[in-house]
Structures are given as C-alpha cells and as structure tokens.
Amino acid sequence: MTALSGRDARLIHDLAKAILTEPEPVRVWPLLMERLTTDLPVDLAVLIDLDWQAGTGHALTGKPDWLHQAPLDALIDAHMRAHPLLSHYAHTADLSPLTLDQIAGDRWWKSEAYHAGKAAIGIDRQLALPLSSRPGQIRAVIMSRSGRGFTDRDLEYADLARSLLDTVCAHEKAMFGLAALGDPAEYGITSREMTVLALLDEGLTARAIASRLRIAERTVVKHKENLYRKLRVHDRVTTLNKARALGLLPAQPPSP
Hints:
By secondary structure, the protein is of the alpha+beta class. The chain contains 13 helices and five strands. Strand 1 and strand 2 form a beta hairpin. Helix 11 crosses helix 12 and helix 12 packs across helix 13. The longest helix is centred in the middle third of the chain and has 19 residues.
C-alpha cells in the first residue's frame, strides 16, 4: 500500500481520539458508524454479528438512524449465505477489507439477495471491514454507497480503521461493564437494545435516552418494544427484573 495521505492520517488520528475520549461508552459504536459514513464517505454503515452455522444474525447498530427501522435482521437471515463478502469471510481466515466489486461475480448482481437489499436499504457498492470473532461467527462493519465504487485510498483508510475497530471489539465488554454478565445474543438482544436496557436501568425516560444517544424518541420506544418481546415481558419493572435474573444486568447492590 502507498503511504496514507496527510488528510487520511488526520482522519484516523481523530477517529482514535474520538474513541479514547468518548465519555459515554454506550456512544462508542454509534460514534464509529457516524464517523465512517463521513470519512470515507458512504451512504450507510452497519455493524453486524452473524452465526454462520445457524444461518442467523443481527444488525447491532448503524448510521444513519433510519437503519434502525429497516428490516435488517430479516435481510440477514434470508440472504446472508448468498452474500459474496459474508461467504468469503465465513470460509477463509481473511480479515482484510474487501469490496463487492472484488469478490462478486455476475450472478450476484442479478440475484434475489442483491435486489432485496437494494429495495430495502439501497445496497449497491459495498465495502466490508471484518473484525475478529469466534469460530463460526462473523462480526463486520458493512458500508454501502450508491453508484460509485471504492478506490485504493478507501481500502487503505478502511484497513487502518479496521484495526481500531478490532481494538474496540476486544474491549467492548469491559467498556460496557458486562464482563461477568450473560450473553445478550442468546436472547436475540442487539448491542443497541442492551444500551437502551442499561439506560432504563439507570432510571432514564425514553426522552432522556433519546437525548443521551442522540436518536429519535420513537426509535427508543421501538427498542423498548423489542426488549419486551424478546424477554417476554410487558412493562419496564418486569423487564429490568428479568434482565437481572438472566445475568444481562448487574445484580442490585444490597440495601445498606
């Protein structure tokens, strides 16, 4: 690779600084998605977590905010095995950023999977940043933009950004204070839903959570509804009690 330009070196420096100085750990991944969409730039960026063997997965967080209302999990479950980039990472040890144009054959651009993604979220040209994960799992940031392909400069930036994001993944549980807790993925609970759950546990209202995360209040309400459904509860207090019983939240300290 050629030496990174001064502008791109500054972008990587600023991205690392943003990670290190973010005062609220729950904001780190949304911040990263926002910065990636701006720095490359791309139309959207989404963090996904897949169980390749089970054929299921989740979109954990993404930008812009309308992605939280898109049927991403349904798209993943229906078409993940047909996606050229995801299939490549599932069957190799490769962790280098790659584009659809590098991997996909002619059949992809005519496939049902491509057209479903195009209709739902405007998938066109894509760049993937694969992150370290357990065997049989895929965690990656997928970025997309319409019309323009990705350049060598984009791939150089993505390679450096990938190493930063991998560091975030390595410390994710520590940042969220969840090192000794249960695995939310067992219940289909996404990273963003866990963030909302933790803030509910702090006693914040939907409006306050929306302000803290800089998202729409209706998006917070949707996350709450998802938590209720996944935990099979119907109100906030029962949600918090069940989440504690399942090890998704820390036990309450004993009263003095």
